[in-house]
């Protein structure tokens, strides 16, 4: 194995160049709307929102986001557990 092969990060087979999937988990819809509007002009960003923290893990497994933005203070389940 060459040095170049060892330094190259593994890229998932379903990755498309410049595609960034963002999942926001937040119980406040107004926050999601603000983030959605900020990202709306970015053609390479696919925005997803989950309002129910109990559904965050199944949603993340389904869409396989690049980035997860997580509210730390939510009812029933906080963003740390």
Please, could you describe this protein's structure?
- The chain is of the alpha/beta class and 81 residues long.
- The chain has a domain of 54 residues: Response regulator (Rossmann fold), CATH 3.40.50.2300.
- The chain is 30% helix and 20% strand.
- The chain contains three helices and three strands; from the N terminus they run αβαβαβ.
- A three-stranded parallel sheet has the order 2-1-3, with helices on both faces.
- Helix 2 links the parallel strand 1 and strand 2.
- The chain is globular, with a radius of gyration of 16 Å.
- It starts with a helix and ends in an 11-residue tail after the last strand.
- The relative contact order is 0.24.
- The N terminus is likely disordered.
Largest sheet entry: 3 strands, parallel
- From the helix content, strand content and strand pairing, which structural class follows? alpha/beta
What is the CATH class of the domain at 17-70? Alpha Beta
Strand content: 15-25%
Q: CATH homologous superfamily of the domain at 17-70, by name?
A: Response regulator
Number of strands: 3
CATH overall fold name of the domain at 17-70: Rossmann fold
Keywords: Phosphoprotein
InterPro entries: Bact_response_regulator, CheY-like_superfamily, Sig_transdc_resp-reg_receiver
Modified residues (4-aspartylphosphate): 71
Protein name: Response regulator
List keywords for this structure.
3 strands; 3 helices; CheY-like_superfamily; alpha/beta; Rossmann fold; 81 residues; single chain
Task: Write a brief structural summary.
InterPro entries: Bact_response_regulator, CheY-like_superfamily, Sig_transdc_resp-reg_receiver. The chain has 81 residues and is of the alpha/beta class.
